[in-house]
Protein 1
Amino acid sequence: MRQSQVTYWCREIINSHAPKGGFYIDATMGNGYDTLMLCRLAGESGRVLAFDIQEKALLLTDRLLTEHGVRSRAKLILDGHEHMNLYAEKELADVICFNFGYLPGGDHRIATSPASSVEAIRQSLDILKHGGLISLCIYSGGDTGFEEKESILGFLKELPARKYTVIVNEYYNRQNCPPMPVFIFKK
């Protein structure tokens, strides 16, 4: 993987921060690569919940996890990330990760939306343990990408600094709406 990719940096931060054997959530499983990383972090004693609204994403992720021998560590859920509070209790997760946008290689008309994404982040803040991390890969562009990015950043800007540290990064010299890695640390 190229070190300049947003997913590389998000995974590096997650790996440096997450306790081994914890409880993790992949809020947007897509092709399953973040779910796989989280399953490796989980080891035999941890667990992973992974969400997506597309059955194709679940099938691809199931195949990937099975190929790597870690399928038993994850529960794959065919539901939107804005419903994660139905599956996880408050202050339970060590890490929650998001990749906003559409399924890579999938139908670009099916994508995350501003309202559901902000709601999912709101729920994540309650589900996250103190000392935990939320990783966000924000992709803008497309039909709703700019609106989603602005909605998410507007919501994050209002989070109380005494409870959360929000770090927003950007590719400063890239053209064409580069992705934005964002990290939320719960104090």
Protein 2
Amino acid sequence: MKNHVVLAFLMVLLVTSSCDFLRSLAGRPTSSDLDRKRVEIARLEELKLQQEKEQLRLDSLIAARQAAADSLSAMQARMITDSLALVDSLQQLNGTILNPTELGGLYTTKLDSRYYIIIGSFSRRANAENLLAQVAGEGYVPVLISFRNGLHAVGICQSDRLAEAVEAFKSVRQKKFCPPDVWILLNE
């Protein structure tokens, strides 16, 4: 009978206790070990998904930055091509673009725009002032530009865009007061 009591006690113990006891005796993971492992795997999978999302965002930003750089490069190339075409057009009209440094630099005149059509350049200021008055009578807003080399120039049709300056150059060349050696001043 003792054997039956021990056997019954073991059966009750086995039925009431979980498999964790037997697993721990066998050196196997228990249910709490398995639960911790499942939580760790889920955490690692979530971390991996976050990293993938961040990588996708980073890739998207890199692609957007590259697209902007490509667009900017294309726009710069178009601007250079357009500028070269305008300069070619100006050369066909026998026009010239000069920088004030090529004439010794500006003396006291501060210029507000980048381009001016120069319709006359004189060593005597009085001659420049006479042309200035004549051009003002034609409806233009002339500017007296003094250079360090002693020359005084009369500029009209100021502009910040080369295309506008070339169009003004074409128009001014048709006027009676315009000499054949008209040129464009590039104020840099």
Protein 3
Amino acid sequence: MKKLNGVHLANHKNTENCAAVPLPLPKTVRIPMSMHIGAPCAPIVKPRDVVQVGQKIGDTDAFMAVPIHTSVSGTVKSVGIYRMSNGRTCPMVEIKTDGEQSVCPAVKPPVVTDRQSFLAAIHESGLVGMGGASFPAHVKLAPKQAVDTLVINAAECEPYITSDNRQMIEAADEVVDGIRQVLHWLDIPKAIVGIESNKPEAIRILTEKTAEMPEIQIFSLPSTYPQGAEKVLIYHTLGRTVMEGQLPADQGVIVMNVSSVAFVSHYLKTGMPMVQRMLTVDGDAVKKPCNVIVPVGTPVQDVLDFAQCDWDRAKKLLYGGPMMGISIPDPADPVMKANNAILALEKFDSPKASACIHCGRCIQACPLRLMPTEIAKAFRRKDAAALDQLKVTLCMNCGCCTYACPAKRPVAETNQLAKTFLQSAIKR
């Protein structure tokens, strides 16, 4: 089978052998009511309320949303407004920790007896996609289409990030159990775990753990970026093409992040909702790169201080990796459910772009063989029909085109602007 295009990146997996350690409890956490795609929650606590770990502090009846729980015990300091990375605002609950980490009495393993009770439990857990997309898991796990394969995204193809790798090495039993739980309750016959070949220890451990489980296959992927993109992962593991306008379920597939399925196992055993996560802390301004287990809502500054960040050198802070990461405007901003890494970078250049030389490297790098140069021309003309013909909505914003461009042009950014223009033109 012909492999899709991509780019070869310097991996910088400096923390691949760093076992995860718990972060010291922060003095305060700031928990936004929107850590998922969809409607934000409304706070159900008020200032001076005493809360306990796992207690629900935000909820909504909206379908595309999940409840929010506190990651610490303590006292609610304030209920305010938080400006998100997309410029929108949502309510935020700030909690002063008491150091006790007392657990809410409501935290109990859910009773699961069938598909519906399983989906209801996943909703109540507050689980969203832990690979960065923050899609509510209970929605993803309830497609209208028939599904025959669960694909586990364990590629972790971005530079620096190793939290999923450590999840597989340190908690392989939870990964396997989570997969089997999803297969069982959703009546899916098989699962494929896609792992990049630069993670031999994770491949070895999961291969051994699943040796007597024919329904679970461990699949070694080439170490090229972006192996973790849904369309690329599905094509390379199953040979199926997710067409324009389709969801993975249209091809009989559900894709879950490997840390997400590990959480499913842990939640079904303990009832503790999504209140913490493992993330990688790295970058050339970090003196002690590490993997840490962090309460949701912890200020980024606390995490970077733990990793001995040199603040005089840190010119750029990112949630996630250098290819698709989101800029962190303020170190006081909180760790969110979908964050898998925090990077502090000194060498983060914004080179001056020069004229396009029509070399075609952006086309060669694109996994979906889009034509960014033609997309840019159509966008400049504000030609919605041409953009539609050029399939700009297929762009995954992986950044391969920008990375490959010798003229250092903001190719991926132009693609995203073109997508937004086309979507608004269609609405009109």
Protein 4
Amino acid sequence: MKKACRQIAALMALIFAVYATSDIVFALTTQEKLNQAKQEKAQTEAELKQTKDNITGMQGAKDSLQGQLVILNDNLEEVSRNLSNLEEQIGQKEQEIEDTQAALEEAEETVEWQYECMKKRMQFMYERSDTAYLEMLFAANGFGDFLNKSLYMEQLAEYDKKMLKQYQDTQAEIEEEKEKLLAQKQELDELHEQTEAEQGKVAGLVKNTANNIASYADQISTAQNVALAYEAKVKEQEANIAALQKQLAEEQAMSRLAAQSSWRDISEVTFAEGDRELLAQLIYCEAGGEPYAGKLAVGAVVINRVLSSVYPNTVVGVIYQNKQFSPVGSGRLALALAEGRATQACYQAADEAMKGVTNVGNCVYFRTPIPGLTGISIGGHIFY
């Protein structure tokens, strides 16, 4: 009997020990999960920062390539102009060669004609021998006429020699000019060929640079999507951290305080230049995938804060107030402003909100739903 009691006591002790141990394990596991959630959030934020740094670096490289592309395009235009000028010069040179060739052919014909005339005269005198020459001299009317005819015959022969020499010289000059023009054209053709090669080289550089820019643009787009995913992950991790409940309580307290404090009328607000752009880009970051009512609600929250005495009285002051809008801290708003990513619906929502239109009353906060939070639900957000 005592042995049985001891066994039962031992068994109860074992069961108690198991339950006690289970409680300890459960407490440690919860703490470990909390620590792990914080570590994962820190890791995700570090990866997000690295991704944004990569985006900045790739954007810088892309901007540098775009600057190079502008220079290359200018070079390509200059090379094309030079090529056009060379083609014009080659055309002019070809015309000069054509004109020179025509002049050379004309000179050759003249030389041929003059030579034929000389041959006929020489043939005539050879066939008639000295008889014709003597007959012409004896037919002279006096000694003076005799001398004149004799001088005429000499001058005619001298003229033939002179003209033949002149035409031959002219022909040689024209041939020399033609050779010079042909040499100049050859030089222009070689320069034209070199310029065409340079044009092809610069065009290739332009194409490669443009392809690199497109590649960087794709990489930046991919990195931005990764950044968006990290931001979403950070938000999910934030929802698992108990500190968010404290933040929520503070927000609810601020919301109640804002409701009880004084409010300006929208007519009393003077918007600064750039407020519309800033508000539209924030709406894009916070509610780009939401229906139009969700976009207007986000814009109304910002304007409600401007109207409330609890918050800054400007759009810039409200949006950049410390730790109020996550896209400001994550860098998404800066990217959206730099690239002008807001849609027409975002601008329309900003315009309506800046006119005082609101579909969330005096709400000054919004977030994704979490257990225990009540308010106006629009799309994927609750406004309170």
